[in-house]
Amino acid sequence: MLFGGGRWLGKQEGKKSQTKSSVDLQRELVAVHDAQLAHALQALDDEGEIGDGWAAREAEIIRKKSPMACKVSLKMLVESPYQLHFVDEMRMEYGIMVRMIRHPDFKEGVRALLIDKDNKPNWHPTNPAVIGDADVEKFFEPLPPEEQWAPFDF
Question: What is the per-residue burial (b if ≥16 Cβ within 10 Å, else e) of 64-100?
C-alpha cells in the first residue's frame, strides 16, 4: 500500500513531526491527478526537504517511471471508489492494463529492465506536462465487447 494510516516515516526522534498525515497527502495527490503530476512530486519533495526520507525516496522512484503510467495510476486512484461493484472495478482495471501493454512505454520498460538491463528507459513522452487529460482518458474507455473482461460463469 503506497500510503498507510498514521504518520509518514521519517519523523525524527524527540522532535515534533512537521510532516503531513499520510491520509492528507494521499488526498492531495489524488486531487491533482489530471494535469498535476509535478504538483504531487513537489509535495513529496517538500516533505523530503524537512527530513522525510520516505517521501524523498518515493519522489525519486516515481521520476524513474513512465510519466504516462504515473498519470494513469493517479487517475485510477480517483476513479476506483466510483466503481460500485467488484466486476466494474475489474473491468476498468483490465481495460487499463490492456491499453497499457499496447502503449510504447511498456515495451520500452521491458527492454530497459529485462532485455538490455541498462535501466535507462526512453519514455515517450518524457515530460508529464505534455500529457493531456484526453491522453489519459483513452486508457479508461471501455474495450470493445469481444475484448472486455468478464467474470467466470460457473
Answer: eebbbbbbbbbbbeeeeeeeeeeeebebbeebbeebb
